[in-house]
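Hey team,

Filing this mostly as a record. A colleague (T.K.) asked me to run one chain through the structure pipeline before their review meeting, and I want the input and output archived in the tracker in case anyone asks later how it was produced. No errors, nothing strange. Just documentation.

Input sequence:
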Amino acid sequence: MARKEISKAMLKRLPVYLSYLKSLPDSGHTHISATALASALSMGEVQVRKDLATVSSGGRPKVGYLRESLVADLEEFLGYGNSNNAVIIGAGKLGMALMGYSGFAEYGLNIVAAFDTNPALVGQESSGKAILALEQLPKFCQEQNIKIGVITVPAERAQEVCDRLIEAGIAAIWNFAPTHLDVPEDILVQNENMAASLALLSKHLKEHMGKQGK
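Output structure:
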């Protein structure tokens, strides 16, 4: 199926569909409809139907989608079959935890090394992957054709690290630092804002407790 331009909002929904479909037991779940998927994920049926139609042409009236085929279509559309090498900048606790997470391979992400300025860390390994000096970043990225950089440094160092990644040829940045990054228009930045996530949880809990108190 030809790849179409999609919104960032839809791009965030598709992995949610995929994760749910993969979590279903094989027995009794050979097919799934947009209605059932929307209900299970508490999403709008119209939106889910449009999303699936963009990704797959396998839907059938009153039958839905063959689950196995829909999973394959979602993975192909999201590019999970491709292997993308990435580097981490910041070999602290978060950086090392990400280096050790084997689940990224399922999504086509391969973290090959980390970079840091701490002499005590440089030259060490974490989860079998080297921790290198930050000065080695440009040469390493060029030789290994690295296009994805993961930032796990403190906020005050994030922009400097971001600039160095871009200079090294990085095209996409996964930012775990709690700060805004200024980048050229052709560079993609995905921010993991933990403060925003906690704010949503706090607001939901406050509303939930308020209803219980009535």
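Quick notes for T.K.: Residues 8-78 form a domain with the Arc Repressor Mutant, subunit A fold (CATH 1.10.10.10). The chain has two domains: 8-78, 84-195.
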